Amino acid sequence: MGPVRSKVPIVLLIPALLGLGLLVLPLVGLLVRAPWATLGPRLAEPTVLAALRLSLVTASIATVVSLLLGVPLAWLLARVEFPGRRLVRALVTLPLVLPPVVGGVALLLVFGRNGLLGGALESVGITLPFSTAGVVLAETFVAMPFLVIAVEGALRGADRRYEDAAATLGASRFTTFRRVTLPMIGPGIAAGAVLCWARALGEFGATITFAGNFPGRTQTMPLAVYLALETDPAAAITLSLLLLAVSVVLLALLRERWVS
Amino acid sequence: MSGLRARLRVRLVDVELDLAAGETVALLGPNGAGKSTVLRALAGLLPAGGEITVGGERIEGLAPEYRRIGLVFQDYLLFPHLSAVDNVAFGPRCAGMSRARARELATDWLERVGLGGQLRSRPGQLSGGQAQRVALARALATGPRLLLLDEPLAALDVRSRLEIRAELRRHLAAFAGAALLVTHDPLDAMTLADRILIIEDGRITQEGSPVEITSRPRTEYVATLVGLNLYRGVARDGVVVALAPVGGTTGTRANGPENDRTSATAGSPVNRASSEASAAIGTGSPANGGEAGAPARGPVSLTAGEALTGDVFVAFPPSAVALFRDRPDGSPRNVWPGRVAAVDQHGDKVRVRLDGELPVAADVTAAALAALELEPGTPVWAAVKATETHIYPA
Questions:
Q1: pTM of the model
Q2: B97 in reach of chain A (CB within 8 A)
Q3: Complex ipTM above 0.90?
């Protein structure tokens, strides 16, 4: 009689372990080199707190904006037949694969002082580049597709016959959406929002390109980390640790929802 | 109140419906016949060609939410995030009623269907029978002009089925508009409906009261449902010739709507036999010679209980058929030879199916089966009394 289980082939095992190390080692490094003794005071430094507050506020606003615009967009993609729908879906998901810096440049070309809409906006007193609103815009641009994808998936997975049932009871499409569809895809929306928020919180490329790096105004956590790395590596590690902690909490939240 | 008149053409379905107000009509047919398609088209959930008139108003151009048609879905589709009372109040709320008034009305309806104690229950906490009642209350609470029910009892277990069927009957009787229910269960159709429409392959193939349907089947599907041998032929003063089976109980297992597809007809319908008609007057040749007792093949005629002339159907139950190893002599009965094709237990009887010129199903006792030593391939004679046959115009 042979062994109960066949062996794991070494050809697969070695690259698998290497891959695991590649993913986990940097995190271990972060934990090992963290200035644990001075962590408290460092976190309480005004610049750190300012960056943290700005990050939390802008990421949250970006998530709210994404919810307000992204959920209807996802509904449109999932429930309404219109010509060019596939193209629209491709466009919506483009920021997922677009280098964020390119996104920042593109935003400048539209909302910048000499951009397509920038002049018009400026004439009514709205200046987006290098402002906190600009940070929100950059984060929304990069993060909203995550929400749209998640919500559209939830909509496609939902049993449309409940919507049929609502229609036979006299519900308009909007009433059906509000009272039947929305509650039923609630978990999907929540997961999408968490994902969107996490992406917004970590946004770097589009933000620094479009909104710049002004402490207290546009300097979010990732920007502060990058800047601190040159002047005060310990501070950079501290900030990184904070972002890591937030990520772990989010992951735990998402797993609650997604592990099936 | 409002009746329904409709001509629907959708996918492979092409049907005409005419329901009086207060009437309950069952659309009975095998799976895949297009029953649910008809309901969805009437409710506006499926784009369809044709015309739909409810209570004198043309509605085929309206979106579902403006049609005022109540639809009870097969699996109820109660909103899982709403309590029973809020499910029922949903329709009235959509009609613009205040929350309090809608709740009041919903409570009233739930009490009427015997669920006054389950107002706050979520659909997940309800039994199948309770969910069915909530679904019915939800459809009725909107004050629909037409009520559609899609397999209303199919999802229930046997016990709650009986109870819910009786209740549903009561609610349908109280409903002022027309009600159309779709089912594949003949029992549901016969107990709930005033009139039955048989739908097969997207067409209405027979129509009538439950009594008419059960006593005068006109298609193989119906004959199988009601458990009759059914033939079509040409009659002259009650003597029917050019007989050809219309399927029916010659199927593998009768009395199951799901089995109708498997019950292949042994012979082709009428046309095949009609060419033999002129030569076939009189009894089929009674010769019983030949090797291994192979029954003589020849046209078969039947003497029916009633004197009719023209194209007719002949129907008789398997229990009316007697089987003999040798040709019974000197009997006024219709006799013809056949060969045992299959033997199945059928309740407390044994159903023997015969192949041959006139395939037939016969119910015999287990004792008779043993005495006759019947097994597949055995040549036998089938006999049926004229008085036990039922003959009616085709």
A1: 0.79
A2: no
A3: no
